[in-house]
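Example protein as discussed:

>
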Amino acid sequence: MRREEAGDRLALHLSRCLVRAIDSLPEKERVVRGVELAQRVIDQIELATKHDARSDDAPTDTGHVLHAILKTLPSGQLETIGLPLTPLIDTTLLTNAPGEPRVGKEIAAEIASADRIDIVMAFVRFSGIRPLLEDLRRHTAAGRAVRLLTTIYTGSTEAAALDALIEAGAAVRVSYDTS
């Protein structure tokens, strides 16, 4: 291992060890004991490096995760927003392969919680955006931006899809460079 890579390589190894250890705990105890284990690791890092760990390095005692900041509706109730299908902590390549998360469903699940939507797509087809149009209309009607950047490179982008997005309030830019 090269010295320059030591931090990344060892941290990756340690993270995998922690995941296995926490996953091996009884399900009902995973959060509490996982938080305790994480705190012990942070304590050891502090001892080994002889510096104070930042206070934000320590996990919370409860292990709670902030999922949303909700607005209060005129009725006094809190708005409801569904959780995303893929947690933000996960990096996921969405390919629409059988048995994998569908791009459209992932996008639809995120629209309600988005402050703005920026989309970069190689091509846009009406069949792909049709299920999202009503959600996108609500998003733009609430004063939140939708921006799309696409191309005509493969000849797959459909004018009807772009027109529907513009009608829904999206700002659309198209690259006509076919090279």
Observations:
- The two ends are 42 Å apart (CA to CA).
